[in-house]
Backbone:
């Protein structure tokens, strides 16, 4: 068992705003992140796949295929978008880094088996800034 | 003469959209940056002051004072804001990295003399992403 | 369960010197780190909290509150200090990166519950330099 | 139990080419990595040792000794070499990042006990580029 | 006048070997870089264009166009190649970082005018490793 | 003319304290940097040499020789030292980043000619932290 990672990046606008709360409560809880005119980030995304190495290639997964997959399934719907407005799988959800990482997991967990017989999705690490980041390892069954 | 730099950061939303053009021309010229629902970035900002060192302190400028100045005059109006909507000194301007760096110069060039007798503003370096950045040294007289 | 991290930094002086040993043995074991006139580092500190997300905020923990907590309880006693001389919770201890990370854990493990109902301290990662670092996950009960 | 890490770096040439396949199949599977005239990388290597701290030194392992060990046993045979041609322990193997990390584990797992009574090898993390990297924690018994 | 930069990366194999010298002299001058079986690097490349901003776009140059140009004219012939063997514009030259940066300048200086009316090539900065790098500003006329 | 750079690092303790001032004035001017028990930093140092390339080697300067020179003449007296106490060339001077960079220039400007016929010292860039740094290009004659 070995862990193989690919780093990608995208940028997006968002705001943190709970529509069931007053504007005042949103500002109290989320501070400047609640700015109704949006703010944004450059996100760094690290996808890790774990598994055995294919004896014919020495790969758990071809990282070029993993990169193409991340671009098609994750960056395409997120890059240069407004996370609250433009992204179907985030509709009605708070676009925190935590929630976004879990949604990216849900997408990729279904897609990784198509590109490797030897590995499966292990973790999604998402940097909102170089100082604020999360890591998700999937639901614990 | 020596060059002293302080690095700060902020994040913001923006879009690149020339209101004198059609939506189609904006998308053709600016691509995904023209998304009308905005996108955003973590900006890194490096302010450089040049000058002689004060013989009593060994400083061209106290970098703590420079940091406080940048926060008050530049980060306060920009951080967690929408560059097209929320920032008075960018009204009616294209919020490209180039234009933003020149506007930051205009603000700080007036303010730096208040915190140092030995130095003056030398350059504004602004990273929109780790891969795209600009540097401005002021108007050439 | 998801893991949320905040990165902070401080700098400090220290020396590695076991007072029960001769000066010669200290120099033999610790080399230049035993310099009696001290040396120092810029430390990078990453605090990770693990837990479920609050359904109302999408946060495990508000990273702004975590940052304020780290600054008050960890950076305030350590930043710009001499780890051997100035820091009460390090008195009589070797200020290695290992020992410092474990002491930071002991402080924050008590404090994190005050800022989140959904998470608890998971790890303390401390970089003495970009090349030398430790990670501590708490005592194993 | 605490985890202590040392970062080193080396550079090398390699190609990914399965000699049991045709040239066409190699190009189809490995793309530009199959270039028969080689390409190369700057590798970053992070070695982590886990254990208790020595009460006399506050160290799990003296990171200077760990650095010397990595240089002698890992960097000496790999740095400025051709991984396919020059490295005895890679003969007949595919020099992917996965395989290389596992071989580095095999070397260091035997050597770390000689420099510390308190720790043992925990992981080998190897960056082929800042975007492509692997981590290996040893065989799972 | 403002300076706009784009960062790209590629990797390649090379050796430093003067064919007019003996093997011994090559090893004496170039050390491990003279290994006849090659070694390699991940190169980081920063291209800077200087000029006025276009009043309609706020750009000196569209960095997406600059990125496409660098990929087509510089990365395509260099990425995953052997600099001594595979690259026509380096035939008969020593593939040091200095020489490579000057050759990249020669290519891009002719091409940049095709993508911007407002700027021209200002510098080529090339990192062979994070610790060894060069910058070239063109021939001084 | 091309500019060739080498990055090195060291760490040291210091304090900023003008002995002609009262303790109160020192604390007012230098804040926590005036802590009489010292604090410290990991310094990053970038030395740039400018010149023509040697036609036989393609080098302005052999960066291995430059690295050896920096280690012998700059890192040896500074690394793991107290800048106020242990360093002869800083005696009686304020060990700010500005002053330290100028002193490093004075040392290396005399030494670089011994290792290259084709280049001379161009600049000394010194990072006290990743956020605070200076660059010095020598006295302007």
Residues:
């Amino acid at each position: 068992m070995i862990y193989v990672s690919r780093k990608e990046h995208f940028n997006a606008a968002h705001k943190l705003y709970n529509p069931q709360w007053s504007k005042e409560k949103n500002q109290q809880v989320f501070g400047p992140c609640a700015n109704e005119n949006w703010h944004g980030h450059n996100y760094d995304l690290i996808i890790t796949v774990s598994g055995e190495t294919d004896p014919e290639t020495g790969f758990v997964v071809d990282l070029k295929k993993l990169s193409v997959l991340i671009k098609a399934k994750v960056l395409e719907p997120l890059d240069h978008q407004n996370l609250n407005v433009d992204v179907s799988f985030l509709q009605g959800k708070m676009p925190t880094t935590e929630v976004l990482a879990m949604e990216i997991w849900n997408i990729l967990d279904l897609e990784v088996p198509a590109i490797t017989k030897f590995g499966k999705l292990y973790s999604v690490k998402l940097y909102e800034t170089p100082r604020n980041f999360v890591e998700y390892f999937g639901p614990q069954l």
